[in-house]
Amino acid sequence: MNNNTITAPKGFLATGLHCGVKASGNPDLGLVFCPTGARAAAMFTTNAIQSAAVVICKDHIASHPIYAAVINSGNANTCTGAKGLADARRMCRTAGAALGVAPERVLLASTGIIGHQLPIGNITAGIERAAQTLKDSTAAGLNFARAIMTTDTRPKQTCRTIKIGGKTVTLAGTAKGAGMIGPNMATTICMLTTDAAISKPLLAKALKEAIGHSLNRLTVDGHQSTNDTAMLLASGLAGNTPIKTQKEIGFRRFSQALTDLCTDLAKQMALDAEGATRMFTVHVKGAASKAEAFRAARAVADYDLVKCAVHGADPNWGRIICAVGSCGIKVNPDRLCCKIGDTYVFRNGKPTAFDAKKVSAVIARKEHTITVELNVGAHSDFCFGCDLGREYVTINADYHT
Of the listed 5, 94, 124, 187, which one is catalytic? Predict the structure, then answer.
């Protein structure tokens, strides 16, 4: 079986297990380890309220090299005060001691319910056990992916290989996320690994571009978590000549592969969103500015009535037009157009005669595209969205604190 987990790149070990955070008994602690040390980059939530894990990880990401990342699910360790910060530091100390590295060389993330103190004794005991079960196998990578899940119904994983200077370079990733997802950051928790030899500044640049064009284009419910974290570790063991400038073809290949990988993860997240049955991409063209193009795309993807229409495979273009008109961008009603799939349903300010059954069948697919042509400028952008089903309310009503 091909390994498409975070252990696929050279130099990475992983594990996932149940340590006692989740009452369900499901896996709730993941650990990834790079024994030779890795260059690291990360991106974090822009929410003003941030998890203790985010605070500590922001501090540690400046260290070089980074050896490990520990992630717990089931408890966000957010709004937990001084004890939460102390517990977050203790997680890093425990992982560092178990792996023989300094605590600041360990990255950290938490996800789950806000406002509860961590069962830190269970977690530290779990970290010590995890350090003894690290492997580079497919099963180990899958266990890690399962350990970071919350309301996800399945793990999200993917892998890419590219050639740089005649050497095979591997990139892999896993992400958790099903609800509380909106651009800035839509990543929730994302763990990425690669064996590329690349400078730390370029690693950070590639991550920012990849997240910006993939996970930060995803909205499930327009909400951003307090814990969103994306981490990228590069072991440098692929044997390629180190990538040191962004003008190199190696950097372009690496950046493109990372963006493609993160786009795959974003789509997996959209299709496993709480209660979702299908996803859609909103392309906005001809906007007065790039910012207005994105604002319009997100307005459509976030609009609950559009999401409900998608759930019902209803070609209700009026809801799309309404979303565009209400988001505060430059619009010329007489030039506005909208397509669902390849079919114009609204053109130059007027409805078109279209086959409703045919368009409904397009919407009923696992993925489809909505295109809005503003025709007031030369700028374009996009956003990923998903339908809004009955299960979204059920899941979030039953997700008790």
Answer: 187
Residue that has been written with the tokens 């200077």 in this structure:
165
What are the tokens at 202? 């370029």
For the question of residue 263 being annotated catalytic, the response is no
CA dihedral 48, 110, 233, 26 (to 10 degrees): -150
Contacts of 141 by beta carbon, 8 Å cutoff, 6+ apart: 3, 5, 6, 7, 8, 14, 157, 172, 174
Radius of gyration, CA atoms only, the chain:
22
Give the span between the Cα atoms of 335 and 287, in whole angstroms: 12
- The burial of 116, by beta-carbon neighbours within 10 Å (0-12 exposed, 13-18 middle, 19 or more buried), is given as middle
Instruction: Between 392 and 71, name the one with better pLDDT.
Output: 71
Q: How many Å from the N-terminal Cα to the C-terminal Cα in the chain? A: 40
The pLDDT of residue 221 is: 72
Residue 349 · residue 246 · CB < 8 Å: no
Residue 79, Ramachandran bin (φ over 0: left; ψ between -120 and 50: alpha; else beta): left
CA gap 367, 217 in Å, rounded: 15
Burial of 354 (0-12, 13-18, 19+ CB in 10 A): middle
53-86 pLDDT, tens per residue? 999 999 999 999 999 999 999 999 999 999 999 9
344 token code pair? 């114009």
Gap between the Cα atoms of 365 and 352, Å rounded: 22
Contact 110, 75 (CB under 8 A): yes
Task: Fill in the amino acid letter for 306.
Answer: V
Structure tokens at 305: 């009535």
Short-list 91, 30, 15, 101, CA closest to 56: 91
pTM for the predicted model, two decimal places: 0.93
